[in-house]
C-alpha cells in the first residue's frame, strides 16, 4: 500500500510533478454550447467521463502515493467514506459509462476538491475536474433533461459486466417505493416445479409455492396468493389437466395448504372470482407489521399432463413463470427434473405491463435487463437448501414422500433474483428435446 503524503504549501507544490504528467490532463474547458453537443450520446459521454476520471486520478496522485482505498481518503481528507468510495469508482472505472451513477453531485464534488487542495493538490488540476463536471451537466440536460434519466440512459449503454450492481440497486429502489404504494411486502416467494416423466410421454407435474413472511406495511394493503395457470408456451390455451392437492387432507377453503410449513393459526382466506373461472385468494383481517407476517406453503399436482416432455411443433419449451404483482424481496424458481430432461435451461425477466406474459409465445416476450441465471445445483434434497427459508428443504422432502418419489432421481436448476420488478415475470425456460433423443 502507498503511504500518506504530508500536506504541501503552495510554494512547495509549484513546479512539482503530481504523479500524472500535466500534458496528459484534458485542458479546462467551459460549459458546452448546444451546437457543440452531438446526437451520439455514447461518444459524448465516454469522452467527458473519461476526462473526469483522468483528472480525478491526477488529483489523487497529487495527495497520495499509490492507489488509495476509501479509508485512506477518509482519513486524509476528513470526508465521509461513501463519498470517497464514489470518487474512486469514477477515477478507476474500467468503462467510463458505468461510472456515471457514482459521480458525486455538485456539493459532494466541491467538498472533495476543496479538501484535496488543502491536502496539496494544485488548483489548476481541481479546476479541470470542475470543468469536466460542468460539461457532464450540460450533456445530461441536452440528452435527457435531468441527471437521473441520463444515468439510466448511460447504464443501458455500459458494458454488461458493470451493470449487475446497478440493476440490483435500481430494483431495490423500486421495491422500497412499490412497498409503500402497494402497502405490502413479501420477503421470499418460491415457485418449485417437480416434473416426473412417464414412458408414454406424459408427465406428472407437482407445484410447491411459498409466500414467506408476507406482511402489510399499510392498512390498505392487499395480500394475495399466487395463481396457477398451465398452457403451451407456443400455443397458449385453456388448462387441460385439473390440479389436485398433494396432501388432500389439508385443503383449506379450496387452497392446497401445507400446514406443517405455514403460519399457525392460519389466517382467513377470502376467495375473489376472476375472469376465466379463475379464483384468487387474499388474506383477510391482517394487521400491519412483521408481527402479523404470514408464511404459506401450498402443494398441488397435475397427473398425466401431455406436451411437457418432448418437443413438438406447437410446444418447443417449458416455461416456469412467476408473475410479480406485489413487492418481493427475493424470487426463487426451482425446477426439479430427471438429469436427462430438456436440452438446456435459461433464466430471464419479461415484462407483463399491459399484456399477460403468461399467455404470450416466447417470441413475443419483451425481455428486460436482468442478471438472473439458471444455476444447476445438483441432485437430491441437499441441493434444495435455501438459507433465507430453512423450511423449504423439508417442504420438498414432505411432498416427495407423499408422492412416492425419490429425491435422488431429480436434478435441481434454480433461478433466484433479489427485488424482482413489480410488473414483470421471472422465467425459467427449458428447451425440450426431440422424442427419442
Provide a concise account of the structure shown.
This protein has 437 residues and is an alpha+beta fold. Helices cover 28% and strands 24% of the residues.
How many structural domains does the protein architecture include? 2
State the shape.
Answer: elongated
CATH topology of the largest domain: Immunoglobulin-like
What low-confidence regions span 5 or more consecutive residues with pLDDT below 50?
Answer: 1-24, 30-35
Helices and strands, in order, run as HHHHHHHHEEEEEEEEEEEEEHEE
CA-to-CA gap between the ends? 58 Å
Give average pLDDT, whole number: 82
State the CATH architecture of the largest domain. Sandwich
The secondary-structure class comes to alpha+beta
Strand content: 15-25%
Computed CA radius of gyration, to the nearest angstrom: 28 Å
Q: Please state how the strands of the largest beta sheet are arranged side by side.
A: 3-8-2-1-10-14-13
**What's the CATH C level of the largest domain?**
Mainly Beta
User: Major sheet: size, sense and barrel closure?
Assistant: 7 strands, mixed
Helix content: 25-40%
| Contiguous helical run count | 9
The total of beta strands comes to 15
Amino acid at each position: 500500500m502507498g503511504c500518506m503524503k504530508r500536506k504541501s504549501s503552495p510554494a512547495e507544490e509549484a513546479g512539482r510533478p503530481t504523479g500524472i504528467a500535466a500534458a496528459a490532463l484534458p485542458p479546462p474547458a467551459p460549459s458546452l454550447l448546444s451546437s457543440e453537443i452531438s446526437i451520439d450520446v455514447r461518444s459524448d459521454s465516454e469522452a467527458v467521463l473519461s476526462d473526469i476520471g483522468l483528472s480525478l486520478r491526477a488529483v489523487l496522485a497529487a495527495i497520495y502515493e499509490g492507489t488509495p482505498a476509501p479509508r485512506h481518503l477518509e482519513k486524509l481528507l476528513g470526508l465521509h467514506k461513501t463519498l470517497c468510495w464514489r470518487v474512486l469508482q469514477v477515477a478507476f472505472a474500467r468503462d467510463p459509462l458505468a461510472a456515471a451513477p457514482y459521480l458525486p453531485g455538485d456539493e459532494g464534488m466541491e467538498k472533495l476538491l476543496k479538501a484535496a487542495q488543502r491536502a496539496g493538490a494544485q488548483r489548476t488540476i481541481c479546476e479541470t475536474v470542475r470543468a469536466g463536471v460542468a460539461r457532464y451537466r450540460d450533456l445530461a440536460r441536452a440528452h435527457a433533461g435531468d441527471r437521473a434519466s441520463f444515468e439510466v440512459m448511460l447504464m443501458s449503454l455500459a458494458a454488461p459486466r458493470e451493470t449487475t450492481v446497478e440493476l440490483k440497486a435500481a430494483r431495490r429502489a423500486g421495491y422500497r417505493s412499490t412497498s409503500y404504494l402497494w402497502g405490502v411486502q413479501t420477503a421470499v416467494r418460491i415457485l418449485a416445479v417437480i416434473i416426473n416423466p412417464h414412458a408414454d410421454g406424459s408427465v406428472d407435474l407437482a407445484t410447491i409455492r411459498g409466500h414467506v413472511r408476507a406482511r402489510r406495511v399499510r392498512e390498505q394493503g392487499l395480500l394475495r396468493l399466487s395463481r396457477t395457470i398451465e398452457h403451451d408456451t407456443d400455443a397458449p390455451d385453456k388448462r387441460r389437466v385439473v390440479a389436485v392437492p398433494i396432501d388432500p387432507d389439508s385443503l383449506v377453503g379450496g387452497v392446497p395448504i401445507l400446514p406443517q410449513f405455514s403460519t399457525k393459526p392460519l389466517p382467513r382466506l377470502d376467495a375473489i372470482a376472476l375472469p376465466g373461472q379463475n379464483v384468487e385468494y387474499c388474506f383477510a383481517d391482517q394487521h400491519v407489521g412483521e408481527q402479523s407476517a404470514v408464511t404459506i406453503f401450498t402443494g398441488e399436482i397435475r397427473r398425466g399432463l401431455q406436451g411437457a416432455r418432448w418437443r413438438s411443433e406447437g410446444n418447443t419449451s417449458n416455461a416456469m413463470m412467476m408473475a410479480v404483482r406485489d413487492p418481493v424481496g427475493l424470487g426463487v424458481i426451482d425446477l426439479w427434473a430427471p438429469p436427462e430432461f430438456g436440452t438446456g435451461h435459461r433464466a430471464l425477466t419479461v415484462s407483463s405491463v399491459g399484456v399477460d406474459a403468461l399467455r404470450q409465445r416466447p417470441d413475443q416476450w419483451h425481455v428486460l435487463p436482468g442478471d438472473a441465471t439458471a444455476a444447476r445445483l445438483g441432485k437430491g434434497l441437499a441441493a434444495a437448501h435455501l438459507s433465507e427459508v430453512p423450511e423449504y428443504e423439508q417442504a420438498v422432502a414432505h411432498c416427495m414422500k407423499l408422492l412416492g418419489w425419490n429425491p435422488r432421481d431429480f436434478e435441481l436448476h434454480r433461478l433466484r433474483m433479489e427485488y424482482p420488478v413489480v410488473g414483470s415475470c421471472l422465467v425459467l425456460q427449458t428447451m425440450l428435446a426431440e422424442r427419442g433423443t
